[in-house]
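Work Package 3 committed the consortium to producing structural models of liganded targets before the mid-term review. Because experimental data for this complex are still outstanding, the team generated a predictive model from sequence and the ligand definition alone, so that downstream docking and mutagenesis planning could proceed in parallel. The input record is reproduced below exactly as it was submitted to the modelling pipeline, together with the SMILES string for S-adenosylmethionine.
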Amino acid sequence: MRDLMISEAEIHGCNTDSEGKHTVNNEYDNKKFFEEYAKMPRSIDGLLAAGEWHQLRPLFPELSGKCVLDLGCGYGWHCKFSAERGAAHVLGIDVSRKMIEEAKRRNADDKIEYRVCGMEVYEYPENTWDCVISNLALHYIENIGDIFRNVYQTLKPGGVFLFNIEHPVFTAGVGQDWIYDREGKPQYWPVDNYFMPGERHTRFLGCDVVKQHHTLTQILMGLLEHGFVIDAVEEAKPPEEMLGIPGMKDELRRPMMLLVRASVNR
Ligand SMILES: C[S@@+](CC[C@H](N)C(=O)[O-])C[C@H]1O[C@@H](n2cnc3c(N)ncnc32)[C@H](O)[C@@H]1O
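The resulting structure, written out as tokens with the ligand in place, is given here.
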């Protein structure tokens, strides 16, 4: 149940980005959700605690002297990684004021600018960025086709769009949870309404969270239709060394994340 001390405005209100535009608020500005998110291993230990990092990291292009945009940057781990890899300028945007405050506190760097801004309302200046990253944020976006079009326009020729989105098998999961047996062990992962994209109401970290389901065709063909060349597609599997973590072996039973690297060939 939601903490009743959290005001309605805090849960359903609007943020204003640096340009005064209103952006949709999300669960990450809900105090209770934010505190629970802070307890996750990836929030405490960063990229090395993220099950997908061993697959995402090799997909990064050369970043030395490059300009990098991170959509839904959260605590800014990938911004910091990009700066450490030699990026000349990094912009991390996130719709959550709390996440941006945390990014500035944990992952500040002279090369990084953090901005409260929804990715739906960012201006996407033409031919500006060498690399656009988005890790685990695109499944909050209803119309990812619009994002693909904007990212294509804002990338320079040869630029790379690298993202990790919740896998369609995961977002089409019924309540995004297993069916359990009598002992409480996961029996199987139910998938339903796969070809009906759109809102999915889920429980995550003890809170109601709205996500958006997109089919595999929408994601991959969406990229191709907007002009991208697809360089790599991967489905996240935890590395050997993480399989001892409780529940991690179950991550081999269905895909949770889809990693894609696409580039601009103009
Ligand atoms: C699971 S977190 C991932 C954060 C970060 N990319 C990482 O991998 O550590 C999802 C992030 O997406 C942000 N987000 C959700 N909807 C967004 C939107 N419309 N525009 C920008 N950021 C958004 C959330 O505020 C949150 O910080």
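Reviewers should note the following from the model. The domain at 8-264 is CATH 3.40.50.150 (Rossmann fold). These observations will guide the Year 2 experiments.
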